[in-house]
């Protein structure tokens, strides 16, 4: 079984913010074939189709690990892939890696603290603003909204390929530099 986690913050207030690109990608992956298996014990929205789980933690970013751990403990997936925003990558950059540092990302820190860092990551570049907290919690600019659609579609394609391949191959094939 594979668990794909999209990081973000719950509530309408954060829906279109940079920190929520993980949620945005989960929404693009989820289709009518997926069954909602959410439960309060999972602390998140959880969807299942065959051997694939999609998770949107509802714990807020800094406590994402609580939800990931609950799902991991219950389903015991053999593979975990986490999708998250990355300030250190230019807007539109896509990188794939396994393990490594959190890079200061609080959602990743939370997951690492509770299940370790031995999982795959899909990093979506959002660029960097003057003050990190306000930038990640801010909405994409009008100039970013149209390219964002293409970025999410591209990342969805790469992620679907990743499910059939390995992280090194996908990183070589689908990594790209930012557009600004």
Automatic annotation (TrEMBL):
The gene is pth. It comes from Campylobacter mucosalis CCUG 21559. Its EC number is 3.1.1.29. The active site is at residue 19. One of its GO terms (molecular function) is tRNA binding. CDD domains: PTH. This is Peptidyl-tRNA hydrolase. It catalyses: an N-acyl-L-alpha-aminoacyl-tRNA + H2O = an N-acyl-L-amino acid + a tRNA + H(+). The keyword S-adenosyl-L-methionine does not apply. The record marks 9 as: Discriminates between blocked and unblocked aminoacyl-tRNA. One of its GO terms (cellular component) is cytoplasm.
